Amino acid sequence: ILSWLNEASNRQPLHQDNEISKERKNCLKRIFPNKEVFRAVQVEYAKFSGCLESFSDFDSMSDRGKIDPKHWWLLYGSSTPLLQKLALKLLGQPFSSSCAERNWSHYSFVHSIKRNKMTSQRAEDLVFVHTNLRI
């Protein structure tokens, strides 16, 4: 039924893994602090992971592993608008290391040999400000 979660025979499905479920819940709580919205997202995730309601459609299930995930969410995620919006945000992020490298470049500019006595929190705050000023 959920072959996309059971690709390897020794792999536990994500919705049955206690640690992953706990961390997913913690993450979603931070993203959706409102209790009612959080519950709605939990219900939407249950529909997605259990292939329930609109996700039980043959096309939806067969396309999960065949088309680009962002396209899949655009095609089949409309019944779960909160989860769809989150998925599209996550899938829309750049997947190269250039952003991280740019961040480290800003950090080396802010925290140099001449300015090595500042605390790490202060340096992080300055990098945050420096990066956001350029956006």
UniProtKB/TrEMBL annotation:
Ranges annotated as spanning the membrane: none
Segments forming domain HAT C-terminal dimerisation: 52-133
Pfam families named in the record: Dimer_Tnp_hAT
MF GO annotations: protein dimerization activity
Superkingdom in the source lineage: Eukaryota
Record InterPro entries: HATC_C_dom, RNaseH-like_sf
Name this polypeptide is given: Dimer_Tnp_hAT domain-containing protein
Lineage: Eukaryota, Viridiplantae, Streptophyta, Embryophyta, Tracheophyta
